[in-house]
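Re: weekly structure request thread

Next one in the queue (147 aa):
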Amino acid sequence: MSAATNKKLLQDIFAAAANPDPAARDRALFTASLADDAKWVVTGQYSWSRTFAGKESILNDLHGHVRSRLRDRSRTVAHRFIADGDVVVVEAKGDNVTKEGVRYDNDYCLVFRLEDGRIKEIREYCDSILTEKALGPFPQGAKRATG
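Done, posted below.
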């Protein structure tokens, strides 16, 4: 796939998932575009730093835990997309509130690697202190990220 095609896919994914109307938000394109053997690497040296290997782990372990901590209206709004071949870099800002009423508006740099129109890898860079302050430490169980 071309860089422009990969960039358009990520733009469509973020537009659908960050719709200003919570009832119209749709994460189906993200789920459909995620390769079964994809991995999501949360970078850094804190409790969330680990690799979520496989589509099910990304959707259930990572996203499931995040959803369990946030109110239903959560979203991440992308404001910059940079594409080069099979890599698309997305800068985004969270628009979230925890179930306890704490704002969680993290800044993200997400590096997506695509293969044949499918997301194979995501590397997440964010404010780790804010993540642990708002969402708490990540539950034990998953392996720590190594790369």
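Residues 3-17 form the longest helix (15 residues). The two ends are 26 Å apart (CA to CA).
Next request, please.
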